[in-house]
């Protein structure tokens, strides 16, 4: 008789194109689906979402429409849904889903795994206190970086490592599918056609980033750095993949600069590898991060990283080996690092090769999924 598959319910507020959301289908593709069956329940529907990607990864997707505060009125409905489908465990992502999972799990004998993707001081007061006051009512809290784990320890009103308690904290750093994320050849038809479509000269240096356009990314500083780089390297072009609430302000900043022809904002893209393959440098000016998936994907495509030492970025990038780092408030230093890489092709190639090796050795999706499966089996015991 075939062994019964473990039924895992991913619980998340929405399915936009953020890093936390994208990890659900990407991990499912690597999981042993002969042993695990995955479902995903979400509550806030957006036009640009990744539902198709979840379905393609053999995840069964369910929607219970709700707002943030409305989640507190969905506890009974979600509890009945879990009982109906006989799930073996809940894996919640981000504070709102985490709070809901803890209320739902109060009267159910079902393990709760929660993944924290950011440091606690970056959440608004409602998310922060809701998360903090319910935090111990779960079995394992997964931190995507050591800095995120430390923020849990510092903010919890009790010692989360206390022996005998229900809560355990485990660091599982984000991973990337290094087989899928491989750089396309620069003379390939796909890259050549894309550069022509974007009006990027064939041999022009391209500095880029993939991101949700939200305030934590500080894209106004990203554009400011780009304008400074243009003064030193006028042939350079800049590529932004993504969208969000800051797009209008960023477009206005670019338009007013008079250098609009150097910037290419291509919106949300389901297939990002061709765009990453056009980039020579991955530039990040973030104020805070968990451990950005898009950066790991860029590294897997042999792109050196120039970034602020925000969150888990400093745990991945070794300064001068896979890229260059500055402190968060010293972002101006990133300009010279970018210019240095544009001018020194041998250094650029070495750092790009090291970036991919770093991801293969320490941040692969295979390693991440293996650690997740181990956690699932442990909590089920």
Automatic annotation (TrEMBL):
GO molecular function: hexosyltransferase activity
Keyword vocabulary terms for this entry: Transferase
Name of this protein: Glycosyl transferase
Glycosyltransferase subfamily 4-like N-terminal domain: residues covered: 18-179
Pfam families in UniProt: Glyco_transf_4, Glycos_transf_1
Residue span, Glycosyl transferase family domain: 193-358
Gene3D superfamilies, per database record: Glycogen Phosphorylase B (3.40.50.2000)
Top-level taxonomic group: Bacteria
Species of provenance: Algoriphagus sanaruensis
InterPro entries: Glyco_trans_1, Glyco_trans_4-like_N, Glycosyltransferase_grp1
Transferase is among the record's keywords: yes
């Amino acid at each position: 008789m075939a062994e019964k598959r473990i039924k895992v319910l991913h619980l998340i507020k929405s399915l936009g194109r953020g890093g936390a959301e994208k990890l659900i289908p990407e991990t499912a593709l690597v999981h042993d689906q002969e042993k695990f069956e995955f479902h995903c329940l979400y509550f806030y529907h957006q036009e640009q979402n990744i539902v198709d990607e979840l379905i393609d990864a053999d995840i069964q997707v369910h929607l219970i429409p709700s707002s943030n505060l409305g989640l507190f009125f969905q506890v009974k409905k979600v509890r009945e849904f879990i009982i109906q489908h006989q799930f073996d465990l809940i894996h919640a992502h981000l504070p709102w889903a985490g709070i809901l999972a803890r209320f739902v799990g109060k009267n159910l004998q079902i393990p709760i795994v929660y993944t924290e993707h950011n440091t606690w001081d970056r959440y608004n007061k409602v998310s922060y206190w809701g998360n903090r006051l319910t935090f111990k009512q779960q079995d394992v809290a997964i931190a995507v970086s050591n800095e995120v784990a430390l923020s849990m320890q510092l903010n919890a009103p009790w010692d989360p490592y206390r022996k005998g308690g229900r809560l355990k904290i485990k660091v599982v750093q984000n991973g990337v599918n290094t087989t899928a994320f491989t750089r396309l050849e620069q003379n390939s038809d796909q890259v050549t056609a894309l550069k022509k479509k974007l009006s990027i000269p064939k041999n022009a240096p391209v500095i880029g980033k993939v991101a949700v356009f939200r305030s934590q990314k500080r894209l106004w500083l990203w554009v400011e750095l780009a304008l400074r780089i243009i003064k030193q390297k006028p042939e350079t072009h800049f590529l932004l993949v993504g969208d969000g609430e800051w797009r209008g302000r960023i477009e206005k900043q670019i338009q007013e600069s008079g250098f609009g022809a150097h910037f290419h904002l291509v919106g949300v893209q389901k297939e990002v590898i061709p765009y990453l393959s056009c980039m020579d440098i991955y530039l990040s000016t973030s104020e805070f991060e968990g451990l950005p998936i898009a950066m790991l994907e860029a590294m897997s495509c042999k792109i050196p990283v120039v970034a602020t030492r925000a969150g888990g970025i400093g745990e991945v990038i070794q300064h001068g080996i896979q890229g260059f780092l500055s402190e968060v408030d010293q972002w101006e230093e990133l300009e010279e690092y970018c210019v240095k890489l544009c001018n020194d092709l041998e250094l650029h190639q070495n750092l790009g090769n090291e970036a991919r090796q770093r991801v293969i050795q320490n941040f692969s999706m295979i390693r991440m999924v293996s650690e997740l499966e181990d956690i699932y089996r442990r909590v089920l015991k």
